[in-house]
Design a protein that fits this description.
The structure is a homodimer.
Chain A lengths: L1 H25 L8 H11 L6 H11 L5 H22 L9 E2 L2 E2 L1 H4 L2 H20 L7 H15 L4 H10 L7 H26 L4 H28 L2 H4 L5 H4 L5 H5 L1 H17 L9 H12 L3
Antiparallel strand pairs in A: 1-2
Helix pairs in contact in A: 1-3, 1-4, 1-15, 2-6, 3-4, 3-9, 4-6, 4-9, 7-9, 8-9, 9-10, 10-14, 10-15, 14-15
């Protein structure tokens, strides 16, 4: 078990470095009069993060023999969407966070207006990447990627979850509401990350569904682990404030289930996620390791 | 001349009503727990505006015999992008505006967090609309639409222009800088609106370029007229604050050229825009009228 988690860390670090290079190559260079925008986009997207979503894209694409250069562009696009959501979430009017990944958040390092625009530009850039012929020669694949990404990221996905999180009365939340919130807020983009490999590989529906089901369970396991880290983790390890859910009176899996049941639930979900991967045999081992990693991680 | 402007107002009002109905049909209904987000999206996108960009899409699509139902979806998508940009521009950290189109801005009617998320969701929804098979049966057309829209709206287009506007030192601006700023901030989306018709109609390159050139000149004429209205217009007609450029010390075509030369320049640009349309003969009359309308309008 320990060995496996070390392996997955190595594999994820390698993919992370590759995605970092891809983003560095793809993101606009800070030249010209808009330099500040491009600088801040790079600040937001480069140099940090587990790159978990890109790893899911790369691993699921590999199942279908997709060219790595294609998958890497989609991985970069999803990471841009993820990073934009962090930049906007950190804004004073939202979660009001000063640090992220151990460094000042974008509105602290630059200013609020720049942070708003950086988020807008990163989101838009993701769609530019996904629709670019360099991402896949088949326009049907590109168009399907864009549509699936837009659905996962929009009002019926990530942004909808964020809205729920910001405004709902957390005191009245039961486990069903928290599950729904997290399925939208983080689950939708996880599901798209796995599905992207199937879209790129023009996989049949049953395989695409298997990956969605995996992502769904794994995403919830990830979120429960996140809630546990917020209670038990150390800020130095995580690179952001801890204990903030409780301070903000937010309902989480941990506040509703308690630490022990939450941890048990996370492990059950990880097992369940892995069970969906049977059809891919051992080729899906990296995805299996991810499911174990997300519940065992300490940051 | 007066008669022509009345006609174009009638034509634009008819298209505006059609786009309003399309948006009402297409935008998510405010049900479920995320209702507040969808309500605020509808508040931001429905019930107002000249719908100038949609009119450009519909008029340019008509040149190539594009089905109206297809063009209307793209028109709705562009209007979502335009409305998202207004919602974010109005935020306290940006232009800090309390009214827009004669009613409270989104962050005033709802709150700042909702306004940030509404902008994010409208932008994302635009890409969902453009990539949907209902927009065009040919995936190459959809994929090209998405890519062109992303370029027009992103860091090298609208958002880049917004960044320049927010942060550049306006005192040092010359006419070249103001032109560049406006070409990015408003010109890029105008150009895409006209180009969209050509993409939907799979027009040849020369016709697509003619429409881009038209949009470029017309867009600058539009902006100069906007600057003139900020100096000379009445808040009741325009539905937003006037005199704010000057109050904020912003460089505009009017502050650099003076009122008379600016008005002359707007008319020259409108004539120049019209000259690009020769290839389309009288079928482009609505676009010619738009070019005259934008410099003659009083709101």
């Amino acid at each position: 078990m320990r060995g496996e988690v070390t392996d997955i860390r190595t594999a994820m670090a390698a993919t992370g470095a590759e995605v970092e290079r891809a983003l560095d190559r793809l993101l606009p260079k800070p030249v010209d009069t808009e330099a500040r925008l491009f600088e801040a986009m790079r600040y937001a997207a480069l140099g940090g993060g587990k790159r978990l979503r890109p790893f899911l894209v790369m691993s699921s694409a590999k199942l279908f023999g997709v060219a790595e250069t294609c998958a890497l562009r989609v991985a970069a696009a999803i990471e841009c969407v993820h990073c934009y959501s962090l930049v906007h979430d950190d804004l004073p009017a939202m979660d009001d966070d000063d640090t992220r990944r151990g460094k000042p958040t974008v509105h602290k390092a630059f200013d609020e207006a720049t942070a708003i625009l950086v988020g807008d530009a990163l989101l838009t850039f993701a769609f530019e990447l996904a629709s670019d012929p360099a991402t896949h020669a088949d326009p049907m694949v590109r168009s399907t990627l864009v549509q699936a990404l837009a659905r996962a990221a929009g009002g019926h996905g990530m942004v909808g979850g964020q809205m729920l999180d910001m405004l709902a009365d957390h005191e009245t939340f039961d486990i069903g509401t928290v599950t729904r919130l997290q399925r939208l807020k983080t689950g939708a983009l996880f599901a798209f990350s796995c599905e992207a490999g199937a879209i790129l590989g023009r996989a049949d529906d049953s395989r695409r569904q298997a990956l969605r089901a995996y992502a769904h369970d794994m995403g919830l396991a990830f979120q429960i682990a996140d809630d546990l880290l917020d209670v038990e983790g150390r800020a130095e390890d995580i690179g952001k404030r801890v204990g903030k859910d409780q301070a903000q009176g937010k309902a989480t899996f941990v506040s509703i289930l308690g630490v022990d049941r939450a941890r048990e639930q996370a492990r059950l979900l990880a097992d369940q996620a892995i069970a969906h991967l049977a059809v891919f045999e051992q080729r899906a081992d990296p995805l299996r390791s991810v499911a174990r990693f997300v519940v065992d991680r300490r940051s």
